[in-house]
Amino acid sequence: MLEVSGLQASYGAGQVLFGVDLRVGEGEVVTLLGRNGMGKTTTVNAIMGLLAPKAGRVAFCGRELTGRPAHEAARAGLGLVPEGRQIFPNLTVRENLVATADGRGAWTLSRVFDLFPRLRERQDQMGGSLSGGEQQMLAIGRALMTNPRLLLLDEATEGLAPLIRKEIWQVLLSLKRAGQSILVIDKNLKALKRIADRHYVLEKGRIVWQGSGAELEAERERLERHLGV
Q1: What is the DSSP string of 122-190?
Q2: What's the whole-model pTM score?
Q3: CA dist list (Å): 182 to 92, 162, 178, 218, 220
Q4: How is the beta sheet containing 78-81 ordered, strand by strand?
Q5: The dihedral of CA 170, 172, 174, 176: what is its sign?
């Protein structure tokens, strides 16, 4: 489904990615792990076309996306839940959800409200008045409304209260069971191991390890310096 090979990216003169290779298959949940500042968000931005890569290739479902703008990535079927949520604070919950909706797939306003009942209760509230957890639910719902083939979540539960984090992980588990392909960045290894099929570890812009949950657990001690746990 998603094939990333030899991806290099920079901000100005400072190179951040040095040949990243990763893939996500149909129906898989894959994680991108690593300490802060290792290039995880840069990888997501380069995949989504928010940052033009210096070198390498990004392909999705056989379609070349390398260096293409973000709207083409979205049209190809990539749905992003960005770091910091970035919902529209001056639009209502309902308006946030329908603003970029695709309207041709299984994800509808009603289905998102079924997934997040709290959003149904607050559908007429301004996005900026929601709590951080509610804004994250809204960001996920907004991405799902584009009916993505692959959902990318950057810092899925960062800064959220424990109960909200638990709710988000349960939602991601239900999406996995429904066959949704997901690439997720987060630091909660315990939760990630329950839902993920495979893991990649990023260190200073390079993939330094990849494997299954069982392999990650077996090598946990060796990988601690890369994961910051």
Answers
A1: TTTSBGGGS-HHHHHHHHHHHHHTT--SEEEEESSSTT--HHHHHHHHHHHHHHHHTT-EEEEE-S-HH
A2: 0.93
A3: 27, 22, 11, 24, 23
A4: 78-81, 150-154, 181-185, 29-33, 198-203, 206-212
A5: negative
pLDDT above 90 covers what percent of the chain? Answer: 83
Query: Rounded to 5 degrees, what are φ and ψ at 39?
Result: 110, 15
pLDDT digits (tens, 9 = 90+) for 142-164: 999 999 999 999 998 988 999 99
State the greatest distance between any 2 C-alpha atoms of the chain, in Å, as a whole number: 49
Do residues 183 and 214 make contact, with C-beta atoms less than 8 angstroms apart?
A: no
Quick one: tokens of 83? Answer: 């770091």
- What tokens were used for 63? 């379609």
| d(C-alpha 224, C-alpha 34), whole Å | 10
